[in-house]
Amino acid sequence: MRIIAGSYRSRRLDAPPGLSTRPTSDRLRETLFNVLAPRMMGAAFLDLYAGSGAVGLEALSRGAAKVTFVERAPAALKILRRNLEQLGVKSGYEVRAESVAAFLRSAAKSTPRPRKNEVVFLDPPYDVIEEYAATLALLGGEHEMLAPGALVVAEHRRKQALAEQYGCLKRTRLLEQGDAALSFYAVGSLLPNRGG
């Protein structure tokens, strides 16, 4: 794994051993950031189920002002912190060692409110299907965490269908690559919940 572009371009990243953490491939990350490029400079980026941190580190490399990494697995956290150290990243990030649900609930209640996120990326383990609906529903119901015009992107199995809408989040784009897919959700008006 490596950083694709930006200030840390071509720098190698470590990944946790085994299959419990599945890093986003370089090719899929490149596709993702080709779409996100106009939004990166100065953005607040939320990397949920961060794993090795590859996606959030790519965001930092491409000019994000702040990246919040949320990950609870000890092995993944160790690799994430090692990647930050090896790249020499000193500021512009926060690591939250807790579950995504706990993080989202606490952030929604915190005062003062944290900076709203322009981009949210989530990549739960593919086999934990219920995490997608739960996390997208929390984000779609708690849109105070999202900046106006925010984009929420979920990486999932190509064959795994996600709902078109979760609360105020409405899918605007679906990109498929190999066995993986990226569903892009934009903040719209709150409509009746249909399957999310």
Q: How much helicity do the residues have?
A: 25-40%
Radius of gyration: 15 Å
* Widest sheet, order of strands: 3-2-1-4-5-8-7-6
Q: Which CATH top level class fits?
A: Alpha Beta
Keywords:
alpha/beta; Rossmann fold; 5 helices; 31% helix; disordered C terminus
Q: How do the strands and helices of this protein lay out in sequence?
A:
Blueprint: H1 26-40, E1 44-48, H2 54-61, E2 66-70, H3 74-87, E3 93-96, H4 100-109, E4 117-122, H5 129-141, E5 146-157, E6 165-166, E7 169-177, E8 180-187
Parallel strand pairs: 1-2, 1-4, 2-3, 4-5
Antiparallel strand pairs: 5-8, 6-7, 7-8
Helix pairs in contact: 4-5
Mind explaining what this structure looks like?
The chain is an alpha/beta fold. The chain has one domain: Rossmann fold (3-Layer(aba) Sandwich). 31% of the residues lie in helices and 26% in strands. The chain has an 8-stranded mixed β-sheet with strand order 3-2-1-4-5-8-7-6. Helix 4 packs parallel to helix 5 (129-141). The longest helix has 15 residues, at 26-40. Residues 190-196 have low confidence and may be disordered.
